[in-house]
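Write out the 3D structure for:
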Amino acid sequence: HNFQPKISDFGLAKLCSKDISIVSLTAARGTAGYIAPELFSRNFGEVSYKSDVYSYGMMLLEMVGCRKNNDPAVEIQSQIYFPEWIYNRTRQGQELCLEFEEDGDEGIARKLAIVALWCIQWNPTERPSMPMVLQMLEADLQSLEIPPMPFVSSDVETGAIT
């Protein structure tokens, strides 16, 4: 709460024993804003440890932006769905418009944003494993590729979905 991450909250994969990597749920469970798409629809895949990777990615985005991931109180319409705003700015090479304490923090924020965007891919098979997330976090920023758009995009002002 209040931007103090509690990783243990994202333990949906703990519902199954260590020798089982996929669990079947009858209803969506988890913290609003962090719930992976496959918890709502099996069209996105099975619930697995990759569901926790999605939640971790959403938490990283909040850390980068110092705000909740879905904030209807924002003043600029294009910023309402925060992951889409971060994705668009990252893809276009724009600054994330955040305040930084030290030189180099913008690069760290960009790296965290790219890793987070990989983690929130709608298709669980396109999300990295947590060991891969760690490798990405330890890698040079230049070696990281911006992922494909991880969600269905919507133009808030026109209502168009792309």
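Residues 7-143 form a domain with the Transferase(Phosphotransferase); domain 1 fold (CATH 1.10.510.10).
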